[in-house]
């Protein structure tokens, strides 16, 4: 790892301007950090206090240009779902090379994919990685490389794993644009797999706050953490919360096997099919370790549902 030391007031650099990355940028500004938000075009809506920056972080030159003066780099970059297995390793290689050269700390937004099928067992940071899917194995291999880079002293790395996102601004989630617009309009609301099984959802605000905390607390480096996630309930219970908020029963259509629905087209669902086990067995995330170590609590699901419905009302009204 480079002996370079980030200068005082060096920026916190967020790679990826999706809901998690943009929310994280806002959270970091709220905490008083100078922030740079990076994506390929650098042309998205302005975020108060945030510098927008255009770079292709899938290349070493692009990653270095975006992060060269950073104190902390947050890897929230993603690609189209059908391209993840092909492109995410390239992004990892470029980002690791960049932080190795500069000495910046690296905080990685991660998924539950490495665990694979659990048979419904509660997922903790100590759960075995048993992924058999192509994307699950890819994510596990990436995580092994991140942790190996930290252990070898090449870089300072920490990983924050999240369950499925839910919250304001979240569109491409199983609890996103396939659900809330239909709930508000009286349309068909898809229910994937068995909606009576417990299923963890992580509030996107808790993702942002959790990653910011990891960025500020280097004593958490060198391991995987589960980002703060409210206790799991069934998806049907969440739909009941939505019903109470919108004032009408939902017309739930069970999607028992992978097929196109709402914003998820045939190509996406063909790629997602290998991950559909997440809806046919309980998906229960335990974030106790993070909550106790950093002294935080996750946002109650009822509050998240309220905020999400309100956001979708405004979003649909502005279209």
UniProtKB/TrEMBL annotation:
Gene3D superfamilies: NAD(P)-binding Rossmann-like Domain. Residues 16-220 form the NAD-dependent epimerase/dehydratase domain. CDD domains: SDR_a3. This is SDR family oxidoreductase. It comes from Streptomyces marokkonensis.
């Amino acid at each position: 790892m480079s002996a370079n030391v980030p200068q005082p007031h060096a920026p916190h650099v967020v790679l990826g301007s999706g809901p998690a990355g943009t929310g994280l940028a806002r959270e970091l500004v709220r905490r008083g950090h100078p922030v740079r938000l990076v994506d390929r075009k650098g042309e998205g809506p302005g975020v108060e206090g945030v510098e927008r920056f255009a770079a292709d972080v899938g290349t070493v030159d692009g990653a270095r240009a975006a992060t060269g003066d950073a104190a902390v780099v947050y890897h929230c970059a993603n690609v189209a779902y059908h391209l993840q297995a092909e492109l995410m390793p390239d992004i990892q290689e470029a980002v690791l090379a960049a932080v190795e050269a500069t000495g910046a700390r690296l905080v990685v937004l991660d998924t539950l994919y490495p665990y694979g099928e659990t048979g419904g067992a509660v997922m903790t940071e100590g759960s075995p990685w048993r992924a058999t899917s192509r994307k699950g194995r890819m994510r596990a291999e990436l995580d092994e490389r991140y942790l190996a880079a930290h252990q070898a002293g090449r870089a300072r790395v920490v990983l924050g794993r999240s369950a499925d996102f839910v919250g304001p601004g979240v569109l491409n989630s199983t609890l996103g644009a396939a659900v809330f617009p239909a709930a508000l309009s009286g349309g068909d609301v898809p229910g994937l797999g068995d909606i009576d099984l417990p299923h963890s959802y992580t509030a996107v605000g808790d993702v942002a706050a959790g990653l910011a905390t990891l960025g500020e607390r280097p004593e958490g480096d060198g391991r995987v953490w589960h980002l703060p996630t409210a206790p799991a309930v069934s998806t049907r219970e969440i739909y009941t919360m939505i019903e109470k908020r919108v004032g009408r029963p939902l017309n739930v259509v069970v999607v028992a096997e992978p097929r196109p629905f709402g914003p998820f087209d045939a190509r996406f669902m063909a790629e997602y099919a290998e991950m559909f086990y997440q809806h046919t067995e309980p998906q229960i995330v335990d974030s106790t370790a993070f909550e106790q170590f950093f002294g935080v609590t996750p946002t109650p699901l009822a509050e998240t549902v309220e905020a999400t419905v309100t956001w979708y009302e405004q979003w649909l009204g502005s279209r």
